[in-house]
Amino acid sequence: MNSATTFDSTKESLLDLLRSIKEGKTQLPDFQRGWVWDDEHIRSLLASISLSFSIGAVMMLQNGNEEVWFKPRVVEGVNLSNPPEPERLILDGQQRLTSLFQSLFSGKPAVTRDPRNKEIKRWYYLDINKALDPNADREDAIIGLHEDKMMRNFRGEVMHDYSTMQKECEAELFPLSLIFKLYKTDCMANVLLSS
How far, rounded to the nearest angstrom, does the alpha carbon of residue 39 sit from its chain's CA centroid? Predict the structure, then answer.
């Protein structure tokens, strides 16, 4: 056995990485704890990415070495009835990658937690006006909405309804779940062009 270890610092696009997670080519080793990030952490991560800030390195282990074997499991939010043998395992970066997968790529609301540690489901949006305001804090431009896409007050009363694409466009909220999809809609194109 050769004791030398080879490291590779290859760059990979976020789209390719999230696609690899969705296809089950990138999974988690069995010793990794579950996903625990709350809504505030996810919004902060999305704000950082929207400003092209570095969010740290991700460490992967290439799968296939017969002397090193961990039982794999798919990333939370991935639905595969028969997951393939993974090409690599996530050793560091699970919380960030799971958050990005669920909020940007899964096509479903992210399953996360509120400040009281209660499970919630959130769709994430970029408030275009706040994002373009040079004096605004970018974290204020990232909005998490309940899975029904309604904004409620503390009594649970609906204050704003963003449940249709037209309502999202009128409010100038860009659904981050569409960031990697071809989005050919006149209203969203008009919103983006007029901002």
Answer: 11
Please indicate, yes or no, if residue 5 is contained in any of the structural domains: no
Tell me the per-residue pLDDT of 98-138, one tens digit each, with 9 for 90 and over: 999 999 999 999 999 888 888 999 999 999 999 999 999 99
pLDDT tens digit string along 144-164? Answer: 999 999 999 989 899 999 999
- Is there a domain that residue 120 lies in? yes
DSSP line for 133-181: -TTS-HHHHEEEEETT-EEE-TTS-EEEE--SHHHHHHTTEEEGGGTTS
Instruction: Say if pTM beats, i.e. exceeds, 0.85.
Output: no
Average pLDDT score, the chain = 87
pLDDT: is 65 or 147 the higher one?
147
Residues 6+ apart with CB under 8 A from 115: 38, 39, 40
**Domains in the chain: how many in total?**
1
Instruction: Give the integer Cα–Cα distance in Å for 60 and 41.
Output: 22
Q: Assess if residue 94 is contained within a domain.
A: yes
Domain that holds residue 126: 14-194
* CB proximity list for 29: less than 8 A, separation 6 or greater: 61, 70, 71, 72, 73, 89, 90, 91
Q: What is the SS3 assignment for 1-62?
A: CCCCCCCCCCCCCHHHHHHHHHCCCEEEECCCCCCCCCHHHHHHHHHHHHCCCCCCCCEEEE
Is residue 150 one of the residues assigned to a domain? Answer: yes
